[in-house]
Specification:
155 residues, mainly alpha, 3-stranded antiparallel β-sheet, 3 strands, 7% strand
Length: 155
């Protein structure tokens, strides 16, 4: 099996670190017309995993910011900005670190929303996504007109 292959020495040091460190993960390749270009998640340290070439990862110096970055990278705002600045179907680390990051004054509501979203589905997710996007729009100081411009892109 793949797990046996990984455990028997293939990139053992990477696999061991992946079980100890939480990373921000996102897919490297996406279609330029996909509904969402950026799809991001936090790694699960409870699994034996070797991330391949189609998954990018970043280890944050402050792991408590992982839920915020997950929300930010999954937001309409970042997806829209990325679509406007990327000319190919890759979402490389070098492109992602160029996106402007603004931290909100209070992360508690956003962190709670991100954690809640992991255990919900369907219409509940849509409502959570809307609230998460609102927090990010507020953090970046977007006007109602600017928000509508971005939101209309996804309709």
């Amino acid at each position: 099996s793949v797990i046996e292959y990984i455990k028997k020495g293939f990139r053992t040091s990477y696999v061991e670190k992946n079980t100890k460190v939480k990373y921000l993960l996102w897919r490297d390749i996406s279609g330029t017309v996909d509904p969402r270009r950026l799809i991001c998640s936090i790694s699960d340290t409870n699994q034996t995993v070797l991330y391949g070439d189609t998954i990018n990862k970043i280890e944050l110096k402050n792991p408590s910011l992982l839920p915020y970055f997950e929300a930010l990278f999954n937001s309409q705002l970042f997806d829209w900005v990325f679509r406007k600045t990327s000319s190919n179907n890759h979402a490389s680390c070098s492109e992602m670190i160029l996106l402007p990051v603004v931290l909100p004054d209070d992360l508690s509501e956003l962190n709670q929303l991100v954690m809640t979203r992991k255990s919900t589905t369907g219409s509940e997710n849509a409502a959570l996504d809307e609230r998460i996007n609102d927090i990010i729009y507020n953090t970046y100081g977007l006007s109602l007109e600017e928000r509508k411009l971005i939101q209309n892109y996804y309709v």
